[in-house]
Structures are given as C-alpha cells and as structure tokens.
Design brief:
The protein has about 210 residues and is α/β, with parallel strands linked by helices. The protein contains seven helices and seven strands; from the N terminus they run ααββαββαβαααββ. Helices cover about 35% and strands about 25% of the residues. α4 crosses α7. The longest helix has 20 residues.
Length: about 210
C-alpha cells in the first residue's frame, strides 16, 4: 500500500466512529437511491468500499455478498450492523486497488459513494473489471464533478476541504475514468442535477 493510500485510509479510520452521524442529513435521500441500486444485483456480489455498512440491509436475501473496505475501523462498524440483519455477509479488509480475488469471480460489483476517495480511481476500476465475470454487471451510486459552467469550477475550488478533512474528492470524473479503465457498455442516469448518478455497466471483455 503506497503512502497516499495509507494517508486516505487513516483519515477514514479516524472518522469511522462518527461517520454515520456526519452523513445522517444526506442519508434520508440516499436511502431511497440505495434501494434503487439493489434492484440491479444478482448472483455472487462484491461490494467495494462497504464503509459502515449502509447498503447491507437492502440486499436481496437470494444473493451472496462479499464486502470490502480498506479501513479496518469501518469494517468493525459494518460488522456491528450485520448482527441485526438476517443475512450472511463476508466482510474483509481489502484495498480495491489491489484485490486478492481471482479473475472473473463476481456476477455483480456494487459501489456507492466510493470512487470519490479511491486514491487511484482508474486502477481501482481496472481491478473491478478484472474480478467481475464476463457479462457481469458493475452498479455504481456515485457523486461526480458537475459539467455545468459555474458549478464544476466551484467544486474544483472547494475540493481541498473534504479531501483534507476525510479523504473524499467532490470533483471526480468517474464516467470518464470508467472508459479509461476499459469499460464500454455504460448506462448513466442522473439522480440529482448532473452530480449524483446511478451507473450500470455490462462487463463485456474483449479478448
């Protein structure tokens, strides 16, 4: 793990105890979007960046879920949530930029508000593409940089604040990064302005 990744992991571990409290004002909106996200999952599922486990209660009972996060303290919080859910989860400390899973392991890969904080987002997306089966799906609920003339530059100006507070970037160009990582069949639906997006990718692998 490189120095930058260790720094971001430390920031998330530092706020793990109060993360849900900090995020509570937004969660009343995001909860509905999380449920929408789960309509797309099937088969053997990997959730990347599970954090404190906000998505876990929404998973269908007929899927097998492995969930990872690079922050051990976030995983501890997620494991406490699992105790109240009638579903089995495999929770592991792991970095999406360097996953230990074999190629073509998962039918579905899920992310939600994760690729704002992955230090090398393209590398993380390449790893997701590697572990997702051919024909599998990657489903993402992510916030990105706006393309609007005033809002986008404003997000660039403000970005150092959340980045240094807890490691999140508010100006990531995630759809562009998906294409750089090799994904091609990408469907994007705007949920709030052009900032919060539901992204569904069919993982077609060209030999």
């Amino acid at each position: 793990m490189d120095k930058h990744t260790r720094k971001i992991r430390k920031r998330y571990s530092r706020i793990a105890g109060i993360y849900d409290f900090m995020d509570k004002p937004m969660e009343c909106i995001f909860a509905r979007w999380r449920q929408e996200l789960m309509k797309e999952v099937s088969g053997k599922v990997l959730e990347v960046g599970v954090g404190t486990g906000k998505n876990l209660k929404y998973y269908p009972r007929d899927v097998k879920v492995t969930a990872i996060d690079f922050s051990p303290r976030m995983i501890v919080k997620a494991k406490k949530k699992v105790l109240t859910i009638e579903h089995q989860f495999d929770l592991q400390v792991m970095d999406v930029q360097d996953m230990s899973f074999p190629d073509n392991t998962f039918d579905t890969v899920v992310t939600s508000c994760v690729f704002c904080s992955v230090p090398d987002p393209v590398q993380g997306l390449k790893e997701i593409r590697r572990v997702c089966k051919p024909g599998g799906k990657v489903i993402m609920l992510e916030h990105v940089r706006s393309n609007k003339p005033l809002l986008g530059p404003l997000m660039d100006i403000l970005n150092p604040l959340p980045l240094h507070m807890y490691g999140a970037n508010i100006n990531r160009k995630t759809v562009k990064n998906l294409k750089v990582a090799g994904f091609r069949h990408i469907e994007v639906r705007d949920l709030w302005l052009d900032i919060v997006k539901l992204i569904v990718i069919r993982n077609v692998k060209i030999q």
